[in-house]
Each structure stands twice: as structure tokens, then as C-alpha cells.
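Reopening this one. Same input as before:
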Amino acid sequence: MLPSLKQQYGVVEERLFCLLHKCRLIDHLFQIQCQVIIRGLLQNRQLAPKAAIAYFETGNLASARQLFDQILQPGTVLWNVMLKGYTEAGLHKDTLLLFSQMKRRDVRPNLFTFPFVIKSCSMIPALMVGDQVHSFALKTGLRSNLFVGTALIDMYASKLDAGLAYKIFEDLPERNVVVWTAIIKAYIANGDMRNAFHLFNQLEEHDVILWDIMISAYIELGDMTAAKELFSRMPVRDVKSWNTVLLGYANGADIGACERFFAIMPNRNVFSWNGLIGGYARHGKFSDVLNVFHRMLISTNIKPNDAMLMVVLSSCSKLGALNWGRWIHLYSENNGFRGNVYIGNGLIDMYAKCGCIHSAINVFTTMEKRDVITWNSMINGLAMHGMGLEALELFDHMLDSTEEPDGITFVGVLSACVHMGLVERGFACFKSMKQIYSIDPWIEHYGCMVDLLGRAGLLYEAIGFVMEMPMEPDDVIWSAFLGACRAWNHVYLAEIAMSRLVRLVPEDVANYVVLSNIYGNAGRWKDFGRLHKVLRTMGVGKLPGCSLVEVNMEVVEFCSSDAKHARSKDIYEILESLMDISKVVIVESELDELCEVNFVNSGREGHQLHCFALKIGLRSNIFVGTAIFDVHASKIDAEGVEKNVYRKVTGLQPY
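Same output, byte for byte:
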């Protein structure tokens, strides 16, 4: 019969041991350690490891190491505690250095030593050291141990050596489900689903974790058929299993299948709703994101997490749903997300894209913690609003902070230079990317530079810049250059750009519209007519214009000739009356330029419906979002329209 602690160490030792077991405050730990030292118990083989564990649990690694270094002959248990603490803290190099020190001091490792060391070899990775540790484990006779064998299988799986992992698996005298899971994961990591599935079928009893691993592997390979077949075979399914398949549908091409699967789920948690909402966002169904989020709030007790709020904020940005974004801001402030960097970044982006740049600035200035995304969102937001000087000043502040700029940062900085017409500053920033920050410019950066040169009228420099690009220029680059040619009415270079665009995006009508305007401005009516004839032969038409209106926390989309709205008949009747009774003043040349009614059948109806959407927005004091900021609706006498409509509908004088 084992003796009690009291019999082994006495009352004081027992009390100190119990205090260390319960202690969670660092100040109390220091006091207990002082008592241990004062009473001459520092070399106690039971108290020292317990004290080190307590330090690791409070996150005070330095004190744990200081305690360890004071022990003259630390036992294997204390070495293991230190190895475990370093590994779990992600300090894998320190783990390997400590293990080397352990070997030099001839301390014999046990079966609990190797798993931590082997894991660190996998994580760095230090696979040559891992091979040495493997040999050492073989010499000590511990390779056949379940813990050590499982760790070795995991290490060789990370090395993508499934063959050696399987040899270790074969040599194990006994195997549990954890070992089987490790070898199956090794084959999955090597992309060998055939052998993984073969081993899976050999195992008589599977736990839920192994089922989920296999299903996830098939989903990542895009094989939803195999994933569904395995899911149907599962004897017991928890909510995580359902969420795994749901995420597969959400990432796939059929969002309808995701909706149907979500509907039959017996239980749902926040990750289930995240899966559906994320699926809608990935498929560009941003209105559905808001609708599902609203349904979750009113029909369940599930609280959103920061990942969900970020997706919802991003959808608000895409839709221009400012009221929704403001509500999310208020909700996050009152529900424990104050100071959350991810939510703060999402709010900056949302406010900037919804036209409220000053609200974005307020969020930025009140954030106590910032990361590179915070700076990027604010710099790009300022540049988007034409506040180039402020964006460049903020970039200078970023350089003075601890954050290093990345490629996205320079997209905003170069955009600011474009808005300000700062050619020299733009080139200096562009060159600094590679020379100072070791960032290879993306095609987006080259696009900004082409835009910068084009707006400055340096068209030949711009096309030379395009020709010297290290990657093939895409349609965005050539479209930017074509736009610059239009601004300076340069027909020859415009035709060069158009010849490239016809090969890259032959169906993009916008490019034909730009070139036709250039021909018209140059008085080249034959070319104008020829282009018009080509368009008619191709059957190319302009995409219908759309406007998004946020009413009572609901986003409604109006498109040209759209009849999907439940009250579309009433809308068109009011629209017809509206155009009869209102005094709408439109500069005809601008309308022709925007809608291109002379040669593309975009129709006045789309323009009128856009104006009607704007009218609803003004009447309800709400936000109207469009694909462009400088909407032509600014030419409308909106106040006069409102008064006439109010008088017509109510028979009363406007208030």
C-alpha cells in the first residue's frame, strides 16, 4: 500500500502540494515558491514539478524556467513537465534544445518524454532531428509504445512519408482507435484516399472523430458523393458531423443543396448558421446573408460569434446596407465584442464602402489594438473616397508603427497617388515595394500605375509600362488604359488597347462603349457606325442597371424591366405617374453618355427605375446603393419630385 503524502513529506509538504494544485494567481505562486525555498524543499521531486506546472498554466514560462534552473538534479518528471510546457506554448525550438540538454545530462527519457519532442520535430519542421529522436526511441525500446508510436506516425505524416508511418503502425503490438486515426490521417495527408479508405474499413469500431476526418477529406477533394455515402453510414452523428457536410455543400457549387441540408438538420449551433451564412456570402447572395442572420436572431437563442459578424458586415459593405451595419456596430459594442480587432476591421471596411468615411475614421481612432488589416482598411477607405492626402499621411503613420505594410497596403497607397495625381510619389512607393519591403508587385499594383500615368496624360509611358510588366496584362489593365485614352481622346492608342481587350473579354460591352465614345468625340462617324453594326451583329446588349434600397432593415433590389418584386405592378404604375407629374431635369448629353441610348438598347426604363429607387430612398430617409458613387441621379430635382408625388397621392399640400 502506497504511503500518503503526510507520511512521505509531512504536513507542510502536503499543504504546499495542495496549494500548488489549486493556485491560479501568479502572486500566490510566488509566495508559495518562497515558502518552498525557505523550508528547504526546492529539491523535492514532487513539489518542483507541481510548481512548474502551475507556472505554465498561468502562462508564466520564464518563472517556470527559472525554477527549473535552480534544481540541481531535476528528475525525468520535471524534464517532461518542461518539455510539455514548451511544446504546448508553441516554443518547439526550446523543446528540442531542452531535450538535447536532457541527453547531455544522461537523464533517461520515458514514454511521456518522446511524444512532446516528436511533435516539436513535426511542427518546426526539424525532420532530420526527428529521425534521430526516432532512433533514440528505438534504442530505449519505447518505439512500440502506443504514445510514442502514434507521435512518430504523426511526424512522418507531416513529412508526407506514409510508407514509413505505416511500417511503424505495423510494428505496434497493440493498436487503439487513436493509432488507427493517425495512420489514416497520414494517408490522407499524402492524398492517398484509396489506402485511407481501405484502412478505415478494416477498423471494426470507429469513433465520431474518425468518421468526421474521413468525410472532411472527401469534401476537401471535392467528392461530395463519397462524403454523403460515408455520412449516411454513420451510426451516430453529432452536430459537428452535420456541420462538416453542411460546410461541404456551402463551399460547393449548389447553394440550394446547402439550404436543403440545413433545413433537415436535427440540431444546429452557431457553426451551423455560420456555414449557411458563409455559403450565401461565397455565392454572392448577400441579401440572403442578412435575411438568414435576422432569422437566426429572432427564432433561436444562438448568439453570433465574431466570424459570423464579420461575414454579415462584409455583406453590408457589398449591399450598401448602412442601417444593418450600424446595428451590427451597436450589437457588437453591447455584447462583448468591444475591442475585437476583427470586428473593428469589418466596421471600418463597411462604413467606408457605405459612404460614411467619417464613421470609419471614428472606429479606427478608437481601436486600442490594430493589425495590418486595420491600417489597410482605413488607408483603402480614404483612397476610395478621394481623400488621397489623408491616406498617404496615414501610411506614414503606419510606417512609424510596429506594423509592416503588405501588398494590400500598397494598393491603397497607389490608389491615393492616383486620386492626387502624384506620379513621382506613386513611382517611389511602387519601387519601395520590392527594394525595401521585399514585396513582389501584383497585377493590381501595375493597374494602379497604369491608371496613374494615364490620368496624368502620360499615355506612351503608360503603354510602355504595360509592355514591360513581368506578367501578362489582363483585361483590367487594358480597360484602365482604354479609359485613359478616352480621357485624352487618343484614338490610335485606344485601338491598340481595344485589340487586346477583344481577345481577352470579347463580350464586355463596356469596352465597346468607351471606344465608340472616343470615335464620336473625334468625329470618326464611319468607325462609330461600324462599331455599332458589329455590336448589333454580336447581339451584345448592355447589362441592366440595378439599384439597392434599404428599407426597414431590408435590402430591396430594383433592376431595369424587373418584375420579380411582389408589388412590381404598383411600382411601375407609380413610376409612370411620377414621370408625368414631376419636373425632372436631366442633362441629355450626360444621359446619352451614361446609358448609350444611341446605339445600345439599355433603355430609358432602367434609368427611370433607378430614379424611382432613389426617390423611395429620399422619402424614407434611407440609403440607396449602386455600383458607382457618382450616380447621375444628382441631376434630378428630387425635392420637387417628392412634393408632387405627395400631393398626387394624398391630395394634401406637402409638409
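So the earlier flakiness isn't reproducible anymore. For the record, The first helix runs from residue 5 to 22.
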